[in-house]
Every structure is written in structure tokens, then in C-alpha cells.
Write a structure and sequence with these properties.
The protein is mainly alpha-helical. It has nine helices and no strands. The chain has helices at about 5-10, 30-45, 50-55, 60-70, 70-95, 110-130, 135, 155-175, 195-200. The longest helix has 27 residues, at about 70-95.
């Protein structure tokens, strides 16, 4: 039974695929088999640069154009990238546990091999932290979307208590509350509070001589 091109691409590797010979133009037309092969190799931890260097594979620019034009391929590409980070994490453990070449022939440490392994581990950790910061980043990033609303309802008793406290504080501070006192049922502002001079003149008893006729009235 012959397998579909997509299944063959997933099971294939760069060594056994019949790629066109060098010198032949790179493909620019999207095919499901090529897209699945790219995603399979990304999921295996390879970079897109390595994949596109293989003869017969499209250029990086062509792959990016496919991603922008076809949302389905973009989703598969992103998923393959995420799986590729797991493969890269496995490589970090493999490189760290491999002590081959850590010692020279005379038994002394080999700093060149150790530094090379450290560079390989640090490079992978850097890429993992940048491409998947939520999983492999050094800092935990907490994102929140939406508004948080909180409403406090005061009872009538609490409102009166706060008002009494407010008035007591003003009284202790000697503060004056501006306003006009009115009788019940009286429209505010209908009678203005007289000034002190007017109130004093209203309560002053007229002198008897003030009722006598003036010279110009005789």
C-alpha cells in the first residue's frame, strides 16, 4: 500500500529524500508534503536556517511568505516550533551529561571542550527563553486582562456616623461651614442673611430727637 505524500514526508529524513541536485532553482510553490517536512524537522529541534540550507528546500523568505498567506500552515509552524523547544531542552541535558573530551590524554582538564559545551548549552537556553518565555524564561510573567471593580455600599447608620465625625473634626479645627440657614419650607436663597452692620442697625432703638422735624421740613 502506497503512503500519501504527507506521510512519506513525516517519515523521511534529509538523507533518504530524493532532493533535486544543487544548481536547480529552489521551489516556490507550496505543497503539503514540503510543509509537513519543514514542520517535522522544526519539531525535531532543527532551525529554519538549517532546514532551508538543504538542497531542494525553499528559501527562508518563501517559508515566511507561506506563513503569512496561509493561516493553517502558520498554526502548524507555531506548534512545531513549540515542540522543537522541548527537543532543544533534551539536547541541553544530553550536552551537559556528556563528559567526552572533558579530560586530555594526560588526565588534565580540557577547558576547550568544557567551554564549548557551556556555549552550546547557553545558546540553546537563550533561544528557548526568547522563543518560549512563558515556559523557559528566567522570569515568570503574569498577564491580566480586564477591569477589577469593587463597590462599597454604606448603611444609613454608617453615613451618619461619618458625617458626625466630619463635623466634629471641623468644629475642633474652628472651621466654618458656609451656607444660609432657612426655615422649613422656605426656598433656599430667598432671604439672604444680613451682614453684621445691617443686623446691628435693625436692633438699634431710634432716638426721640430723630422723630423731630428738620429745619427744611418746617
Amino acid at each position: 500500500m502506497t503512503q500519501a505524500p504527507e506521510a512519506q514526508a513525516l517519515q523521511a529524513s534529509p538523507d533518504d529524500l530524493n532532493y533535486p541536485a544543487k544548481g536547480i532553482g529552489r521551489p516556490t510553490t507550496y505543497t503539503p508534503a514540503t510543509a509537513l517536512l519543514i514542520c517535522a524537522r522544526l519539531a525535531d529541534g532543527e532551525t529554519l536556517t538549517e532546514i532551508c540550507r538543504t538542497p531542494g528546500m525553499p528559501r527562508r523568505q518563501t517559508v515566511h511568505q507561506w506563513r503569512m498567506r496561509m493561516p493553517a500552515f502558520e498554526a502548524e509552524y507555531a506548534q512545531a516550533r513549540a515542540i522543537g523547544m522541548e527537543s532543544m531542552a533534551d539536547e541541553v541535558l544530553t550536552i551537559s551529561d556528556d563528559d567526552t573530551g572533558d579530560e586530555q590524554a594526560d588526565g588534565s582538564p580540557n577547558p576547550t571542550a568544557v567551554n564549548r559545551a557551556r556555549l552550546m548549552v547557553d545558546t540553546r537556553k537563550f533561544l528557548m527563553g526568547k522563543l518560549a518565555p512563558r515556559v523557559y524564561g528566567d522570569r515568570q510573567v503574569i498577564e491580566h486582562q480586564g477591569n477589577i471593580g469593587h463597590t462599597v455600599t454604606l448603611s444609613d447608620r454608617e453615613k451618619l456616623r461619618r458625617l458626625a465625625t466630619f463635623l466634629q473634626e471641623d468644629d475642633d479645627a474652628g472651621a466654618l461651614i458656609e451656607g444660609t440657614a432657612t426655615e422649613a419650607g422656605e426656598e433656599p436663597g430667598s432671604l439672604a442673611s444680613p451682614c453684621p452692620a445691617a443686623r446691628q442697625a435693625a436692633h438699634t432703638t431710634p432716638h426721640p430727637e430723630d422723630n423731630s422735624p428738620h429745619d427744611d421740613e418746617i
